[in-house]
């Protein structure tokens, strides 16, 4: 089993910044993809950003230029630096990791990000 522990969410004003972290532990083996999804009230969960084992990144159009995803392979940790935050970024943010000898997807418990106008 793999455990994902997220941190860094909170309340921030429009234009502010937050940095999310997600540390993976347990049966980690050859982690393929790490990333972040988010879900706002009444909406479907959506991709925010992902990063591959070769550091290839992919972002949702809505966050390009404002958010940056990175990973520390030695610590099995993925980060999401969020700048120029907008009220529409308000959501629960979920860490996502694909790892294991048989690649398996795991989800974090979610961390709330609230951007006030």
Description:
This protein is mostly beta strands and 117 residues long. It has no helices and eleven strands. The chain has strands at residues 2-7, 10-13, 18-26, 33-39, 46-52, 57-59, 67-72, 77-82, 91-99, 104-107, 111-116. Strands 2, 4, 5, 6, 9, 10 and 11 form a seven-stranded mixed beta sheet that branches. The chain starts with a strand and ends with a strand.
How many beta-strand segments? 11
Strand content: over 45%
Percent of residues in helical segments?
Answer: under 10%
Radius of gyration: 14 Å
Question: Which structural category fits the helices and strands?
Answer: mainly beta
Rough outline: globular
Largest sheet: 7 strands, mixed
Number of helical elements: 0
Model regions low in confidence, pLDDT < 50 over at least 5 residues = none
Mean of all residue-level pLDDT scores:
96
Spatial gap, N to C terminus:
40 Å
N-to-C series of helices and strands: EEEEEEEEEEE
Topology readout:
Blueprint: E1 2-7, E2 10-13, E3 18-26, E4 33-39, E5 46-52, E6 57-59, E7 67-72, E8 77-82, E9 91-99, E10 104-107, E11 111-116
Parallel strand pairs: 2-11
Antiparallel strand pairs: 1-3, 3-8, 4-5, 4-9, 5-6, 7-8, 9-10, 9-11
Structure described in brief:
This protein is mainly β.
Give keywords:
mainly beta; four-stranded antiparallel beta sheet
């Amino acid at each position: 089993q793999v455990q994902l522990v997220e941190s860094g969410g909170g309340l921030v004003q429009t234009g502010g910044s937050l940095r999310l972290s997600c540390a993976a532990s347990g049966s980690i083996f050859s982690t393929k993809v790490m990333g972040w999804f988010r879900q706002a009230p009444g909406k479907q969960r959506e991709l925010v950003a992902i990063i591959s084992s070769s550091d290839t990144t992919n972002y949702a159009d809505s966050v390009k230029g404002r958010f940056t995803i990175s990973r520390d392979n030695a610590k099995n940790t993925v980060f999401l630096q969020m700048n120029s935050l907008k009220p529409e970024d308000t959501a629960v943010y979920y860490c996502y990791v694909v790892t294991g000898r048989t690649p398996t997807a795991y989800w974090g418990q979610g961390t709330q990000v609230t951007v006030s106008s």
